Amino acid sequence: MRGELMLVTGASGMIGYHTVVRGLAEGYRIRAMVRPTSDRSLLQGLPVEVITADLAQPGTLPPAVANVQVVVHAAAHIGDWGPLEEYRRINVVGLEHLISACAREPSLRRFIHISTLGVYPGRDHYGTDESVPPDLQGLDGYTRTKAEAEMLLRHYMEHYRFPAVILRPGFVYGPWERHSIPRVIENLLSGRLKFIGDGSKVLNNTYVGNLVDAIFLAIDHPQAVGETFNIRDERLVTRREYINTIADFFGCPHPGMVPLWLAKVAVVPMEWWARLVRRKTPPLLTRARIKFMALNLDFSIQKAKSVLGYQPRVDFQEGIRETLEWAAKHLPIAQEALRKKQAAVR
Predict the structure, then answer these.
(1) Helices 316-330 & 239-250 angle (0-180, nearest 10)
(2) Residue 110: its pLDDT value, please?
(3) Residues 274 and 280 sit within 8 Å (Cβ to Cβ)
(4) Which residue from 121, 126, 114 is spatially nearest to 139, judged by alpha carbons?
(5) 8 Å CB contact between 67 and 107
(6) What is the pTM of this model?
(7) 284 versus 67: which is more confidently predicted?
(8) pLDDT tens digits for 308-323?
(9) Strand partners, 258
(10) In angstroms, rounded to a whole number, what is the distance separating the alpha carbons of residues 12 and 38?
(11) 267 against 334, higher pLDDT
(12) Contact partners, residue 327, CB within 8 Å, separation at least 6
């Protein structure tokens, strides 16, 4: 609603930044919450109030939420490797700190929580909808604690009428994506990337602009409060389309294939050894990466369409080109890939 004060957590990240930009265009006053160590370069020059706060330090949160009407909670500890408690400290305990601070603000009318389709069980999905409960075991610290976070938030929604909406996007890509796609480019350049299985199963791809559309629909729709919505692109793409599109853009060979059965056998000792030696970075293969690269991740968005009027506007091919063109201008690994492509042409 024009003129309202919106707090965006994780404002220096991809989802948070795009939410800030859309909020300004929609006429909101924006308060962008960042941690003390966050890179704030994306926010420079924007007419926003930047406030330093940390979900792990509850005393820093009251000034961040003061007088807000809308909160978009995009901050999270992400990744697929690391101690469970590190994820829980931000994704669950930090969320409860934020809810507690927000609950004291009588002005709050909507709290949008960005969850993930990763909360569903780690198996093939063919049209799975929101009636399937989150998997509290999870394959990694991120997905497990995001499921725990949903259960925590739902407690407040049901018992205290906390005005929240849960959105579950899939793999989110777009300009300023600085985690998954750079890793794909790096592994393509090194030759380490392989398809697990034949690459024909679909990914739960979600262009960031489509997700932001859903965020703003959920902010204002009267029937959104208390609900959970799956969010993804209209057209899901196979792993082959996803990976090969990136490979073609940078002139890299298409990857070969590893049988799924072999990956499932190899992942157990790889994860065991990495934990034994306390690796800070994930091994080449993890159960979370098998899920990302091999399982069919088709989740229904019929509820978002029928309740919110959600209509994904941007197709994968349009969104991924925009993403890769941004990467080519801003990410060193993408620039290295382009230099190798140009050298090969010569």
Answers:
(1) 40
(2) 98
(3) no
(4) 121
(5) yes
(6) 0.94
(7) 67
(8) 999 999 999 999 999 9
(9) 196
(10) 7
(11) 334
(12) 177, 181, 182, 185, 334
**CA 313 centroid distance within chain:** 18
CA distances from 166 to 152, 219, 278, 302, 305 (A): 12, 11, 34, 15, 15
- Say whether 152 sits in a helix, a strand or coil: helix
State the Cα–Cα distance between residues 235 and 162, nearest whole angstrom: 33
> Of 223, 231, 238, 221, which Cα lies nearest the Cα of 294?
238
Q: What CA–CA distances, in Å, run from 314 to 205, 206, 209, 239?
A: 11, 9, 7, 18
Number of H-type helices and E-type strands within the chain: 13, 13
pLDDT digits (tens, 9 = 90+) for 96-152: 999 999 999 999 999 999 999 999 999 999 999 999 999 998 778 899 999 999 999
Q: How far apart are CA 65 and CA 68, in angstroms?
A: 6
Output the six-digit token pair for 143. 């997905």
Residue 205: both structure tokens together: 């791809």
Calculated CA dihedral for residues 245, 246, 252, 256, nearest 10 degrees: -70
Amino acid at 221: H
| Cβ–Cβ under 8 Å, residues 304 and 231 | yes
- The tokens describing 131, both together, are 């009636």
Q: Are 207 and 319 a contacting pair, CB within 8 Å?
A: yes
The separation between CA 111 and the C-alpha centre of its own chain, rounded to angstroms, equals: 17
Q: How many CB atoms lie within 10 A of CB 162?
A: 18
Amino acid at 262: L
